[in-house]
Amino acid sequence: MAVSLRPRCEACQRPTERCLCPLIPHLPHRCPVLVLQHTSESRHALNTARLAVLGLQQAQLWVGESFSQLNAYLAAFRHPVLLFPGPEAQTVEQWRAAQREPDLLIVPDGTWRKARKILYANPCLQELPRLQLNVAEASRYRVRKAPDAQSLASIEAIAQVLAELQPEQSYAALLRPFEQLIEEQIAAMGAEVYARNYGGLT
């Protein structure tokens, strides 16, 4: 007997009865965003990068590991930056001190290992200036075991960078579907399982 698949929303990829689209904003931002999502991450139930792209007016999501069109795409921008830590990575404040502002934000999405694979598979990314975050608060990603409390989900990192680039614009709404998704995951696993696996309380 064939097993029927649960219908899913084409936009947010959630089951239709748990569609997150009513919570997804359509926020303006000066700096376009390109998310390079590793193929394995696109199958993850908590696809936070997809939610970020859906909530922004000038954002794209490319899925893969090696992107043949990337060189030509980057040629259209004067100051593209890669959101990725490194010895020469700078903060938004340091960019501003040099009287520069990025005109494209590139965000590798995946585990640290998968994100590095994207960098190695696309040499043009290694030539870009790097941007890093000043993480002041712990991540709200309460159903993930991160290397440290300041490791952010992609959607959190993107929201923070855009807020730093445009302090006059609030990007809190970008996190609403993410927070709802986390609450649903915790409710589905139950308080006891959540507390045992993640040391949290509902």
TrEMBL record:
Q: Which PANTHER family match?
A: TRNA-URIDINE AMINOCARBOXYPROPYLTRANSFERASE 2
Family the entry assigns? Belongs to the TDD superfamily. DTWD2 family.
The molecule here is called tRNA-uridine aminocarboxypropyltransferase
> Taxonomy-wise, where does this protein's organism fall, top ranks first?
Bacteria, Pseudomonadati, Pseudomonadota, Betaproteobacteria, Burkholderiales
Q: Sorted alphabetically, which keywords does the UniProt record give?
A: S-adenosyl-L-methionine, Transferase, tRNA processing
Limits of the DTW domain: 5-190
The lineage's top-level taxon is Bacteria
Enzyme Commission number, as recorded = 2.5.1.25
| Pfam families found in the cross-reference section | DTW
